[in-house]
Amino acid sequence: MTDQQNLPRYGVDFYMDWVKKEGLPVTEDYGVDLFKVPLADWPRYGCKGAAVHLKGRCDFSNMFLFEIAPGASTIPQRHLYEDVFYVLEGRGSTQVEFADGKKHTFEWAPKSLFAIPLNAKHRHFNASGKDRVLMVSTTDMPLVMNTFHNEAFVFENNFDFMERSGKEKYYSGEGDLITVRPGNHMWETNFVPDLSGIELKSWGDRGAGGTNIMFVLADGTMHAHISEMPVGTYKKGHRHGPGYHVMCVTGHGYSLLWFEGEQEFLRIDWQHGVVFPPADRQFHQHFNTSQNPARYLATGVGGLRYPLTTDKRRSLLGLKPGEKGAVSLSMKEGGDQMEYEDQDPRIHKIWLEEMAKNQVMPKMDNFKVAQ
User: Do residue 15 and residue 164 come from a single domain?
Assistant: First the structure.
């Protein structure tokens, strides 16, 4: 044996070794414009692709970017990690096939959201003969790869999770509304045709007339929710555990991120296609500076149905029956939300300056804001 072969194996990151072997370019930053990420040929999928690693995203999740050429399709896949897709650009369709021979095909367009049932065979098609498709998936592949550290087990496993296939209507854009309480209402489906148009529900605890809906997608452990800020408003600051990927869907604005005790804010400006992560226990606050309502999509690992970790359960559900999740419970009551009157006075001043630049009328007078 060579000296290299005799070296002890420790500190192995099987997921990162796999990414390198696949030849995928990696983009890593706090804020990433997905339209500007460098891509390379990805033989496994038969299209161009890239890995996107947000700083502070945690060890469980990542993103893959896919560019499908005009008139082309991806190579059929099945795998034991979950993925939630968001369409950035282009139109096409996805076919999902199960072991009993049943197939589902649905057509998507920009701002569509969908999930593939676990280990179901699937393939994506570009419907245009002249324009590319660009879409991004949030996955739990780092968790799965580093747990099993066996590529064949992840990609060549024939076990069928038929219970996750979902109802027929889940592939046509329909779903089931499951009412829980404001902030926790769920839309169960596999496919949302247009995130900019789906009806949202009031979530007053998060401030300034905000609305949201939580998703249960393909009965998976992957989380997704969409929130909206009305024109002339911003949300309350809050913090939670790591792993969320936040993407702008409509409007434009910025977010401020900071850790407790820090005097400076990290600012990330966003518009459609920009994704950023609140890191573990990092305060973050979202501000709408556009002439239209601003919607953003958050994806990650662990959701309302399957929280996965104690931190996610506390954050989304609360630890006691009937308790609010910590993300919408005031810090004065033991939660992780900072009330407007307790925020740094600089925050409101910065926002007012941005509103003036964008010629948008502020609408926060009815809220007790520190300034």
Answer: yes
